[in-house]
Amino acid sequence: MSKQISAVRGMKDIFGDEARAFDFLVDTATDLLRRYGYQPIRLPVVEKTELFVRSIGEVTDIVEKEMYTFEDRNGDQLALRPEGTAGCVRAVVEHGLVGRGQMQKLYYVGPMFRRERPQKGRYRQFHQLGVEVFGVETADIDAELIALSARLWRALGLDGLTLEINTLGNLHARARYRQVLVDYFRANYDVLDEDSKRRLETNPLRILDSKNAQMRALIEAAPKLMDFLDEADREHFDAVLGYLDTLGIAYEINPNLVRGLDYYNRTVFEWTTTALGAQGTVCAGGRYDGLVAQIGGKPTPAVGFAMGIERLMALVLDQKLLPYRSQADVYLVAVGEAAQRPAFALAEQLREALPTLKVQLNTGGGSFKSQFKKADKSGAAYALILGEEEVARRQVGVKPLRGQGAQEQVSWDELAEHLQGLLCCYL
Ligand code: ATP
Ligand code: MG
């Protein structure tokens, strides 16, 4: 035997209940997104490195430490995408999907790559479902995005998520605030940890985001960006909160929520849980009104969010929300040579007549007993039994597998109608 090859560290196979939870999440979310008027977009996994440096920011964790970059054979500097917004903006600019008051509501699902230390809820390949709206400046769309996410948690049955929200104002307000913050942290230089000392020079707002408990008191007492906002930014934020109040969506204003990417302005928010340990953010987003122009498009306001599918998947499984779905409604048992081809035809006939019926045809042969065992394991409500005698009479045995009830013989022509009667509540 050859030596086994294992998956790359931090790159996770998803199978079994996790894979079913993945589909359940994506199906539920995409149904909802369509109801809110969103269109799908599919984007490449590889982009030019420069795209991420220019959008996410040079001195962010992602660009400094986490990106998978490589040189292509022709010398191009490329990267596996660490997030979806930059590529989405590149695409809408490249294809002229934004500008002139046009609105675009888009969503995408796919793998993202960050070279972080793998742990529960943190992987090097993970998946995001991202939602982006282009062309709307007003607070109503920020609030609608949040309402959409809140509705998704309800649709999934998820409990225990908290909405944290903040505003980052505009670039000028942030520049004024940045200076005050740097002065404050300089005055308390000895309390700063190594990471924060480094960030003081490069990205001081990120110090507010530190998870280091020893710095909590210092951060709590720091000057607040909220006090440096312009009138228009404050009104925008108040309007977002007003809409949330109207809808009865609870939130916590977290003045230290700054997000790890440079492109945000005004509204930022995160949905968090305490159920996943340190990896508690399951959905994060905000407004990025400057990014489209920064990527070479016409100035276009934009706002969006991304959900971490693996973290939501863990919550769905922990809270036992994955709906039970049997592999089959009916399982077709075919015993004897003469029954094989008619069984094939019958299975296809049923799939044609009843488009929502889950039909499993026994494949791989086997005795009556072993086929029946497989039928039982499939979770089907009924076994359909086809032996040589049934074939001669153009009939099939219909035997309930759950609960009581005798086997009935039904003619091939009437089978679909018969099953529809039996399974009316499933189909
Ligand atoms: P964190 O603070 O947990 O590192 P982040 O701010 O880097 O998150 P975003 O860039 O906002 O994360 O990505 C949006 C969402 O994607 C996160 O809220 C999280 O649910 C998920 N996510 C981010 N990085 C990872 C990862 N390495 N593994 C799994 N999920 C992730
Ligand atoms: Mg991160």
Shape: elongated
> How large a portion of the residues is in β-strands, by DSSP E?
15-25%
Multimeric state: single chain
* Physical arrangement of strands within the biggest beta sheet: 1-5-6-11-10-9-7-8
- Distinct compounds present: adenosine-5'-triphosphate, magnesium ion
**Fraction of helical residues:** 25-40%
- Rg, rounded, reads 28 Å
Tally of contiguous helical segments: 15
- Sheet/helix structural class: alpha+beta
How many E strands? 16
Which spans of ≥5 residues are poorly predicted at pLDDT below 50?
Answer: none
Summarize model confidence as the mean pLDDT: 94
State the separation between the terminal residues, measured CA to CA: 48 Å
In this structure, how is the largest beta sheet organized? 8 strands, mixed
Summarize the structure.
With 427 residues, the protein is an alpha+beta fold.
Structure, explained:
It is a single chain. This protein has 427 residues and is an alpha+beta fold. It is built from 15 helices and 16 strands. β3 (69-71) and β4 (77-80) form a beta hairpin. The site of adenosine-5'-triphosphate has 18 residues, from β6, β10, β11 and α11.
